[in-house]
Specification:
It is a single chain. With 408 residues, the chain is mainly beta. It has one domain: YVTN repeat-like/Quinoprotein amine dehydrogenase (Methylamine Dehydrogenase, Chain H). The protein has four helices and 29 strands. Strands 2, 3, 4, 5 and 6 form a five-stranded antiparallel sheet that branches. A four-stranded antiparallel sheet has the order 1-29-28-27. The longest helix is centred in the first third of the chain and has 15 residues. It is globular.
Amino acid sequence: MTEVEEPEQPTTINEEYDLWVSNVPMMYDFVSETRLTWPSLTVQWLPTEMQPREVDGQQLLRQELLIGTLTTDNEPNYLKIAAIDLPENVTSSKPSVSDDAKENELSHRQSKIKIVRKFKHEQEVTRARYMPQSPNIIATLNGAGIVYIFDRNIKEKDHGAIASFSYHKENGYGLAFNPTVSGQLLSASDDGTVALWDVTSTANKSPSQTFDVHTDIVNDCKWHEFQSSLFGTVSEDNTLIIHDTNSDRAIQKLSVSSAFNTLAFSKRSENLLAAAGTDSNVYLYDLRRLQKPLHSMAGHEDSVTSLEFSPHQDGLLTSSGSDRRIIMWDLFNIGAEQQPDDAYDGVPELFMMHGGHRSPVNEFSHNSNVPWLMCSVEEENVLQIWKPANKIVRPPQPPADFDITTLE
């Protein structure tokens, strides 16, 4: 009798995680995983002085990050500042140790985050962002759409927010400080509104401007990195809109078939914009010709929820999503030739996939001090800090004739 082959069973999430753990020594120079008491919907590295200190004969560099809480109705919520002490070889760009030595070293790294400061917070922290021009000033957004401002310079133990701003009527996830104008803060809400605040004037509780151009939930808002008056928003109304604070009307509007959840402006090219959302693809756009994408990248298997360009590497874009994955994209590899075996692993621009999370990724952040050092939080209370191995993270280099805005 002919034997009937049984269909291959799909890999479980825990089996995928175990496989990822087994590959950590080959793929990473550093991995730290911490189970938080409560989930954090947000995470962002804080700019921290690069001054190593000696602890038990070892040089350690402390880095700090923002997280929040999403608790039950009976438990208080907090904005928290966490810290991790990293070995000097993790924070440098020196070549990695050999694989055998590194495997032993990784197995003994037990760096865990410590909560060094916390602020009482009304309702859950949906987003937390520091002001680039004054990093001790931190803004948050809560489940009612209220914006809070905190000041780390105030040392009282139980000190709360120094100001709150109310305009939105519903929850929100869009929050962004202007990188070029001090004190300008954008917030976006599920009620379809976007507000611009001047946080340097805490006595004024009204928005400087409001933008009511969307007809559904506003999923994200981001400032342009070079032009101080430009910002973008994406919404469940299937539009991406470019705004100018000098105008009362949208200056560009793109309608798409599937809603975008997130967008990001390039930190190197003033015309390059990325957006992604419910169809799982990441799209690249030229602001001068917004109606047609330059390129789309497939790699995620579910909605993409966060996008960020690297602050260090030109052409490096990172995305995360509900598929539990974080993908680094090397835009300079778009269109590169592939061997058939390589094509099985994804498109040529898919540089690295971080598969260490076992539930949807809420948010991630690039460290502005240490190239390639990342942090990420997931729905199931886990915070990971990780750095890909130096041997695989050569800085992306464009071909001499490469122009991202000529892609079709």
